[in-house]
Amino acid sequence: MARPLRAWRELVKNLFRKHVTGQYPHTKPVIDKNYRAKILFDANKCIGCNICVRNCPADAIKIIQVNQDEKPTEVDGKTIPAKRKFKCVIDLAKCVYCGQCTDGCPVKALSSSQDFELAHFNREALIDEMKHPYETESKKK
Ligand code: SF4
Ligand code: SF4
Fold first, then answer.
1. pLDDT > 80? residue 112
2. Domain annotation covers residue 108
């Protein structure tokens, strides 16, 4: 007889306890600033060294030059080659969010964000193409 009574006591007690589970997705969890989720790319900083590509254990990241066709400019009789510009393509389905690419980047062009909501029905949508503003501009023309 003692057991059902104990169970009832436990049940009533738990009815008034504070919830310990999160009500996601209705309430968003607080994510630690060191959490590694979606990788961000700053095209203005990238120097195209490809260290991130070599460091990636999942073969998930590519750095692509976007202005191969840009002509050198002439300034005071000197030929100045076009500054190389790059975009970054990450396959979010392959990425294991290890942070090796962000840690190894010599100019801090890559960083981890806290954006973890990356699920999608379509694998193609997980190819994250972070374009250089230059490329976006030239496609508008
Ligand atoms: S976080 Fe890791 S797996 Fe993802 S792109 Fe960077 S190095 Fe590759
Ligand atoms: S390591 Fe950094 S600078 Fe080098 S290619 Fe990758 S993003 Fe660009």
1. yes
2. yes
